[in-house]
Amino acid sequence: MKRALLLLPVLLLCFAVSAQETYKITYHYFREGAMIKQDPVVVFAQKGSSINSKLSQISGQTRYPAEMSQYDYAKNTVTRYTLLTANQVISMKDTTSLKRYSYEKLPDQGNMLGYKTFKAKTSLNSNSIEIIYTTDLGIQAAPNDVGQAFGLVLEYKVNGNSGLRAASIEKLKSLPVEAQLPKNSVLQDELSYKDIIWKRKFIQIPIFQNQQICFQPGIASDSIMRFAEGTVILKKVKIPYVSLNSQAFIELVQTSNGDAYDRTGSVFLIAEDQKQSFLDGMKDSVNVLPKYLDGNGQAFPGMIRTEGFSPVYELMRFFTPFGVKHFNDRVKLKGKTWQDSAMYRQEISEFLPELAGKEVYIGTYIGNYDKGGHKVSLELTIHPGRSIYPEGTKVMSLFNTTNILEMAGQEYPTMYGHEKGLEFEFIVPADMKNVKLRYISTGHGGWGNGDEFNPKPNTIFLDGNKVIQFTPWRIDCGSYRLYNPVSGNFENGLSSSDLSRSNWCPGTITNPVYIDLGDLKAGKHIIKIHIPQGAAEGTSKSFWNTSGTLVYQ
């Protein structure tokens, strides 16, 4: 009998817990006073605790990764759970979020959804936050961490024009099954937890990991392919199928591994839309590729599109700094803390039709004559949604005069030294709409009189008509001094890396420009690029690295 009496308080306690009043609050997003279509936040609240989720999760349409948060008001903590998949869950204990904000209480607001309300404000990352809350229900809850201590937050407004607003409050008999927290989660520290979630939101495709690009005749290949005495590396990469309504980015991290100079670099994709590709010239000889003859009769293989051959797509043009990392300890200056690497990141979403669901060859070139050379890591990331390119966008490689196979005999592109410039015929196989020329141009060579340091106009003609004339030039090179520890210093207080240049700076990307060409009919067309390239100074030649890709529907 005593045993039964001892169990009675426990049973009563269990009944009291299960009989707690439970509320389901649904919050909708709004902007400028109007509700917007976005996955609503759903909160289940009981006295002393609440659980935050999304409508998609509780309705069985979970979009991974999906987070739920449990608020414990007695302990002033938040436990966050994220479902990475249906069977994989991570979690973390957050003991600081609810203590992070300081509030200013404002006069009574009035009524909302039939409840008397009050108002308070705080700030978050320089944003003004206002909340409207009620204490009528005797519970604490909110659509996020802000205002949890005051009661039930009915509206969360950012900078006076957007936020979350309670659309409905339902009283339930108990906590429903769909609101139960995930089991068997793997506890993480805060930084690891956030890093895992962030990386699950997009696709990461590593291409090169700390690979050397150098000048070593006879250098052996390992897990990647090497060409032009080690100055070009190449890898076959399998890209998963993704919606073309996505955004793609290429990111390269580079350090010096012995080379002290600023060098031209290029990340490229082998175009495989015709019978012959640039890969044939890499594997066999650059001389097997079709040649462009300039006005002086000099031959430049593998640089223009012909019937049967496509040059490479240039994804990103970059320029190495003077000796970043490797030479950081050689020069010590007050107030200068040298960077330990150069990072280049650029959107390449227009190339997704050539990437998604395919096996492709992606490579990197850095022109140098140093045995140590450079170290690079290259990664492609693909992020779902929000592409600026309409459905049906395609690309076609036209020209690339950067002599990627320089150390395998491909000549410097000096064709602009003749009035003819770069001029050739290409075939459009079917009508193209809304055509843009994705054009990259940088000038090089010479000393004080060379094209590297003198502005030169670029003029583009299509079918004999001038499309555009502009002068590619960079005046911001001094912004990147901390990437250039061994840049030469001059008597006037400037360093070599400070000097303005023909559309490039040591340690930066050269962004493409997008030139409208209108609609192109199927058939033959002629493109001409004219640049008044300077004359050679002794053994020093001026030249222009240019690349062009058609982007069209």
Produce the secondary structure layout:
Layout: H1 2-18, E1 22-31, E2 34-35, E3 41-46, E4 49-54, H2 55-58, E5 66-72, E6 77-83, E7 89-94, E8 104-112, E9 115-124, E10 127-134, E11 152-158, E12 162-172, E13 186-187, H3 190-200, E14 203-213, E15 225-227, E16 232-238, E17 246-256, E18 264-269, E19 276-277, H4 278-283, E20 291-293, E21 299-301, E22 309-310, E23 313-319, E24 342-347, E25 359-366, E26 374-384, E27 394-400, E28 422-428, E29 432-445, E30 458-462, E31 465-470, E32 509-510, E33 513-520, E34 523-530, E35 542-552
Parallel strand pairs: 7-13, 19-22
Antiparallel strand pairs: 1-2, 1-3, 1-12, 3-4, 4-5, 5-6, 6-7, 8-9, 9-10, 10-11, 11-12, 14-26, 15-16, 16-25, 17-24, 17-26, 18-23, 18-25, 20-21, 23-32, 27-35, 28-34, 29-33, 29-35, 30-31, 30-34
Signal peptide: 1-19
Pfam family, one: N-glycanase_C
Protein name: Peptide-N-glycosidase F N-terminal domain-containing protein
Give an overview in words:
The structure is a single chain. The protein is mainly beta and 553 residues long. It has helices spanning 2-18, 55-58, 190-200, 278-283; strands at 22-31, 34-35, 41-46, 49-54, 66-72, 77-83, 89-94, 104-112, 115-124, 127-134, 152-158, 162-172, 186-187, 203-213, 225-227, 232-238, 246-256, 264-269, 276-277, 291-293, 299-301, 309-310, 313-319, 342-347, 359-366, 374-384, 394-400, 422-428, 432-445, 458-462, 465-470, 509-510, 513-520, 523-530, 542-552. The model is unreliable at 1-18 (pLDDT under 50).
Largest sheet: 13 strands, mixed
CATH class of the largest domain: Mainly Beta
What is the number of helices? 4
CATH architecture of the largest domain: Sandwich
**Can you count the beta strands?**
35
Query: What do the pLDDT scores average to?
Result: 94
What is the CA–CA distance across the termini? Answer: 85 Å
User: What is the approximate shape?
Assistant: elongated
Number of domains: 2
Low-confidence parts: 1-18
Radius of gyration over C-alpha positions, nearest whole angstrom = 31 Å
Q: What's the CATH H-level superfamily name of the largest domain?
A: Peptide-N-glycosidase F, N-terminal domain
**Helix content range:** under 10%
Q: What is the percentage of strand-forming residues?
A: 35-45%
CATH topology term of the largest domain: Jelly Rolls
Structural class: mainly beta
